[in-house]
Amino acid sequence: MTNRNQYITSVVSQVHDETERVRRYSLKCVDGWELPPFTAGAHIDVVLESGDTRQYSLCSDPRERNEYQFAVLREDVGRGGSLEIHQNFKVGTPVSLWLPRNLFPLAESSGNHILIAGGVGITPFISMIFELERRSASYELHYCARTASDFAFREFLLSSRRTGQIHLYADGKRLEMEKVLGRSSDGQHAYCCGPTRMAEAFAHALRDWPEHQVHQEAFGKLPVPQGPTYEVVLRRSNLTLTVVPGKSLLHTLKDAGLPMKVGCESGICTLCKVPWVAGAPIHRDHVLTSTERETVLLSCVCGSDGDAIELDL
Q1: Are residues 129 and 203 in the same domain?
Q2: Does one domain contain both 256 and 287?
Q3: Neighbours of 224 (CB within 10 A)
Q4: Which of 3-7, 14-18, 32-36, 42-46 reaches the highest mean pLDDT?
Q5: Helix (H, G, I), strand (E, B), or coil: what is residue 292?
Q6: Which of 113, 192, 260, 274 sits at 20 to 30 Å (Cα–Cα) from 268?
Q7: What are φ and ψ of residue 15, in 5° steps?
């Protein structure tokens, strides 16, 4: 195993079709060593041949250090990352990835844990279930898919070994979010990973819950804000660029020839972080602290609350 700039070199050891469009991959260290530890809810950044990265939740037991597992939904119309993985990742394929990070951790609580998943958003909850059962914690999973054949990890979830309540919704059966979540109680935590409409319904249903009891994972690339046109001034390059509605600051910089790295485009991975020195950026990321936002921004999701932003580039 090599670890240079927090990279791990691994190899695909197993490929398994969970559904017609969701494929699960197992990765092992090329040298046969144990992989670095991770906690339930963590993700890895997988490096593609293009140099871009994609983020995938780990869906294996956090206690299992011999391999990492992640699942990929094939999107026939998208940025191309999932198609590249489905087409090129086979047993024996070398894969570079970043060390696991956790932006969606499982709470240390003895109360009930309510897990809400939509589609491939089930993946972080698989690692959570391993951990919850190890703790003998109370949990319930509510998992939505279009059809019964679209449930990934179905065999795992319906195993008689599961100690929590497993509820599957498909073929017109709807999840009643507010009824399922109810009112908050001490020690109870709610989690959601799914598409935008599900995330919005989850947030609305929990609008009166204490913030520390609500956990949400960003799901997929965020839409580019359709805000007003603004300029970006590059101090060191002595350039002024124009960011137009429908185009992100990240891609404006990349198209101008700056060596920008493209990752999640959801304000999570921080690959596109740049220093800013003037203006009024609108931060839409999920990870920067208030202190960090005083000096840097994530160009994939950031906007401007003025006519211009000046960057130290």
Answers
A1: yes
A2: yes
A3: 19
A4: 14-18
A5: helix
A6: 113
A7: -130, 130
How far is the C-alpha of 207 from the C-alpha of 274, rounded, in Å? 33
pLDDT at 186: 82
Closest to 224 measured CA to CA, from 303, 283, 306, 297: 303
Amino acid at 144: C
Tell me the CATH number at 133.
Answer: 3.40.50.80
Token representation of residue 189: 């935590």
Beta bridge partners of 46: 54, 97
Q: 102: which DSSP letter?
A: -
- Return the residue matching tokens 């990349």: 254
pLDDT surpasses 70 at 211: yes
Residues with Cβ within 8 Å of residue 116, at least 6 apart in sequence: 142, 175, 177, 180, 181, 190, 191, 192, 193, 194, 198, 202
Name the residue with tokens 């991770």.
38
Domain count for the chain: 3
3 state SS for 243-305:
ECCCCCHHHHHHHCCCCCCCCCCCCCCCCCEEEEEEEEEECCCCCCCCCHHHCEEECCCCEEE
Mean model confidence pLDDT for the chain: 90
Domain holding 122, by residue range, is: 113-217
* Domain assignment of residue 43, yes or no: yes
Alpha carbon distances (Å) from 204 to 169, 172, 182, 189, 249: 20, 22, 12, 15, 30
Helix (H) or strand (E) holding 57: strand 53-57
Q: How many CB atoms lie within 10 A of CB 5?
A: 5
pLDDT in tens, 78-116: 667 899 999 999 999 999 998 898 989 999 988 999 999
Give the number of other CB atoms < 10 A from CB of residue 16. 11
How far apart are alpha carbons 301 and 244 in whole angstroms?
Answer: 13
Alpha-carbon span 89 to 47, nearest angstrom: 12
